[in-house]
Amino acid sequence: MLYDELPAWSAKAAAWAAEYHATLRQRPIRPNVAPGEFLSQIPTHPPQSAEPFENIFADFVKLVPDSMTHWQHPRFFAYFSSNASPASMLAEQLANAISAQCMLWQTSPAATELETAMIDWLRQALAIPENFRGVIQDTATSSTLAAVLTMREKALNWRGIEEGLAGMPTLRVYASEQTHSSIDKAVRLSGIGQNNLVKVKTDSDWAMCPASLQSAIETDRANGLVPTGVIGCIGGTSIGASDQLEKILKIARQNNLYSHVDAAWAGSAMICPEFRSIWKGIEMADSIVFNPHKWLGANFDCSIQFLKEPKDQIKTLAIKPSYLETLEQDRIVNYSEWCIPLGRRFRALKLWFLIRSHGLSGLQEKIRNHIEWAGQAAIEIEKLDNFTIVTPPMFSLFTFRFTPPGYDADTKTRELIEAINADGRIYLTQTLHEGKFVIRFTIGQFDTEKSDIDMAISVIQELAESLT
Question: What's the CATH code, domain 3-71?
Answer without folding.
Answer: 1.20.1340.10
